[in-house]
Amino acid sequence: MKVLVTGANGHIGSHVVRQLLDQNHEVRAFVRKSSDLRGLNGLKPEFAYGDVKDPAAMEAAAEGCDAIIHMAAVYKTIAKSIEEIVEPALQGAENVFKAAHKHGIKRVVYTSSVASIGFSYDPQALRSGEDWNDDAQNAYYVAKTRSERAAQKLAREYDIHLVVICPAIVLGPNDYRITPSNQLVMDWLNGFGQTYPGGLNLVDVRDVAAAHVAALSKGENCKRYVVGGENIEVKEIGVALKRLTGVKPIHLPTGRGLTLTFARVVETLCKLLHIKPPFTYDLVYEVVGRYAYYDCSEAAKDLGVEPRDAEETLKDCIAWLLSQNKLKPRVAAKVAPKIPTHPASA
């Protein structure tokens, strides 16, 4: 296939491009002129330049392609306004499907997130692609939920086969700008963040990329596939980091109610002082005291994704952070002898 990949230079995108080329697909990488292209070093896709918010650029990039993998999005969890993240997501979805329709492209793989699926207060309850986040508060979570609903509607309107990939917390190499996911581990090791009551699902970026590539020929129409690894308590991630590195993250023992109150106070003080808060009330609302636990069996069954375990995923994430000098010198000195480095694309 000739595949248009939006967000091709991003953390997931660079791995998708690599795997597509490895499988002898032709790749047209859609990036902005100002994009950081380090993740694509050594690869030779065809480049198309523009912004997914520009319908003309999107249409031009899609011409002659057989499928589109749409990953371009604003990935940050602290924003000045909700529109800063939501509007690009909605515009991007609309322009991708309009471009596909104009050029007769009948297959779109759409990157969403478990942010659109939501979380449970019960660690025994596994959420799946049948669930929606009906209580989204944080701008990123709102954007992912609303833009994916728009994509589902557009796919049906234009009769395009849509496969949705909803990754969990994506960790691993080639993350040059350090996404909020890898930053979690970075902050825990550097002492800037705390583990908290609740649960997460960790997945390696290369497994997420493999799901995207598989979805070009597999996957049911308009089906949402959760691509994740192990469901694990956040506190247990801290224990695993201690075992792997010798560094034990601080654990926040307070419950959801007290933590939310604390978050509100911190955010208010930061606004008064005109500084960026380390976290916001709406982000704490999404995660603390909740469980991002998922049933990922459909992705394994339909897409053939067998993800790495959490410890291997964490180890490769730490190796990447070390290679990019993202750990404090004293932390790096302690961690480096325990974590072997290896090629980023391995």
UniProtKB/TrEMBL annotation:
Q: Which Gene3D superfamilies match?
A: NAD(P)-binding Rossmann-like Domain
Q: Which GO terms describe its molecular function?
A: aldehyde dehydrogenase (NAD+) activity
Could you tell me the superkingdom of the organism this chain comes from? Bacteria
Give an example GO cellular component term for this record.
cytoplasm
InterPro entries, per the entry: Epimerase_deHydtase, NAD(P)-bd_dom_sf, NAD(P)-dependent_oxidoreduct
Q: Which Pfam families match?
A: Epimerase
NAD-dependent epimerase/dehydratase domain boundaries = 3-228
Q: Record's PANTHER family?
A: NAD(P)-BINDING DOMAIN-CONTAINING PROTEIN-RELATED, PROTEIN YEEZ
This chain belongs to the protein called Nucleoside-diphosphate-sugar epimerase
